[in-house]
Specification:
With 476 residues, the chain is of the alpha+beta class. It is 36% helix and 21% strand.
Length: 476
């Protein structure tokens, strides 16, 4: 039995029927490298051998009555891998648009909470004989870097090689505790909640004080960049509208950018890979806002998760991250100006995260019981939050994958697109995944409030061309 962390519990608490908080990895393979026919049955046998190193796949959720404390993961005694496996065909001609449409439909389906919170879809019918897998998992069980850790365990470095993490299975399921047992187990947590609340408030107060002192003592030769962002301070945009009727439909689109191009921009402009990802995201979102007559007069707000894992967290799949709050300069016309603003913002924000020694996201959630947070979310969905600004207008997450090609049961992984989960008031999310010399930038929105989503990655290509061909002003 394993109790969920505060961050893991937050994702369960925010989950609801219309805004489910599972994410998905869309993985495209070349099956011609496999020594055996690459079928769902072949992949199934491979996964069974890897279950010992992927504990989230056999863990079932058990909640505490009335949301008094964090739920727990229990090794599910009824686990059957076949309950989680599905197969589906892609319509002709099997291109990216057809693949994205199928991924959108699968991503909008609920996950069965009576079982471990994941499923796998085996997709056939792609152009050039390619095949794909969609692996969906609840965000409470794994975050972006946790997903990468899992990929390292599942894959091998050669077509006929053993998976990196394969080992003998000594798994032993455990009895599922009753609700009465869960209530009794939660009592110590309830008793200690006032102490945790005080600690959380102290952590938040320390961050606020630190930022106030930094602002007051900032030297004239290092002026405020104005690039940071406060929660709930962004303008209300079309993709921040809450969908109240029915279950929103996911919409995906993506751009595949060579890392060699990204490195050229990085070296030319003295920025980071994350800065480049943010800059092309700003350009794509700006184009979409212009096309839909929604471009604000100023910047928008953007959450940028950063990994907080330490060496001791290696092999842990659960959530370990903090969020940098940035202003995304979609109002700036010049691509170089946008990149410069973003570079200044990320540099300053990362220094702040390192020096704060606390996680603001966890601190906020620790002040309230999970049950109270759930009431707040339900109130937003009921229509009470239509006029409330979103915590962020959008979110851009950047996950670094392995630099060399990997193989799953013999088939070469060619690319991976991350289908992000969404929350009420924040439908548009950009996920960046770097792997084997490529940067895969995937935009997830909702069909109801983010139509024409493919215009965003199309603009990203144009932005990259400009950034690669234009020298900084000081060198011109």
């Amino acid at each position: 039995m394993k109790r969920l962390s505060d961050l893991d519990t937050l994702f369960l608490t925010l989950d609801n029927q219309r805004y489910p908080l599972h994410g998905g990895g869309l993985l495209v393979f070349d099956p011609s490298t496999s020594p055996e026919p690459w079928t769902l049955a072949h992949v199934r046998d491979h996964l069974i051998r890897l279950l010992p190193v992927m504990p989230p796949l056999r863990r079932r959720l058990v909640e505490v009555p009335f949301g008094l404390a964090a739920p727990v993961w229990v090794e599910d005694p009824e686990f059957n891998i076949d309950d989680h496996l599905h197969t589906l065909g892609i319509p002709a001609p099997g291109g990216d648009r057809e693949l994205a449409a199928v991924a959108d439909e699968i991503g909008s389906l609920p996950i069965d909470w009576r079982r471990p919170l994941w499923d796998l879809w085996f997709l056939e019918g792609l152009a050039d004989g390619r095949k794909a897998i969609i692996l969906r998992m609840h965000h409470a069980a794994v975050d972006g870097m946790g997903g990468v850790e899992m990929i390292f365990q599942m894959f091998s470095a050669e077509p006929g090689g053993e998976a990196i993490g394969a080992k003998e299975d000594d798994w032993k399921p455990e009895p599922v505790p009753s609700q009465g047992e869960m209530f009794v187990r939660a009592l110590p947590t309830v008793v200690m909640r006032p102490v945790r609340t005080v600690r959380a408030l102290a952590g938040l107060g320390g961050v606020i004080l630190q930022r106030s002192i930094k602002s007051a003592t900032r030297s004239e030769d290092k002026p405020d960049t104005g690039s940071g962002a406060r929660l709930f301070s962004g303008p209300r945009l079309p993709f921040n509208e809450i969908v109240h009727h029915g279950i929103p439909h996911k919409a995906m689109a993506w751009a595949n950018i060579p890392m060699s191009d990204v490195k050229k921009v990085r070296e030319l402009h003295g920025c980071t890979v994350n800065d480049v990802a943010l800059a092309i995201s700003a350009a794509g979102i700006r184009r979409w806002l212009i096309d839909h007559d929604a471009l604000p007069a100023g910047p928008i707000t953007c959450g940028n998760p950063v990994n907080t894992r330490t060496v001791s967290d290696t092999g842990q799949f659960e959530n370990h991250f903090a969020i940098i709050a940035l202003q995304l300069p979609v109002d700036a016309e010049d691509p170089l100006e946008r990149l410069s603003i973003i570079n200044a913002a990320t540099t300053e924000a990362k220094e702040s995260v390192k020096s704060s020694h606390t996680n603001v996201v966890e601190n906020i959630f620790q002040v309230f019981a999970p049950g109270f947070t759930e009431l707040v979310v339900n109130g937003l969905l009921a229509g009470l939050g239509d006029k409330t600004p979103a915590a962020f207008n959008t979110l851009v997450t950047n996950v670094q994958g392995p630099p060399l090609p990997l193989y799953l049961a013999g088939a070469k992984l060619e690319r991976m697109h991350i289908q992000m989960m969404q929350v009420p008031g924040m439908s548009m999310i950009v996920a960046v995944f770097t792997y084997s010399g490529q940067m895969f930038v995937t935009v997830t929105g909702h069909r109801e409030n983010t139509p024409d989503i493919w215009t965003i990655p199309e603009e990203m290509y144009r932005e990259m061309a400009v950034l690669m061909s234009t020298k900084p002003a000081k060198t011109r």
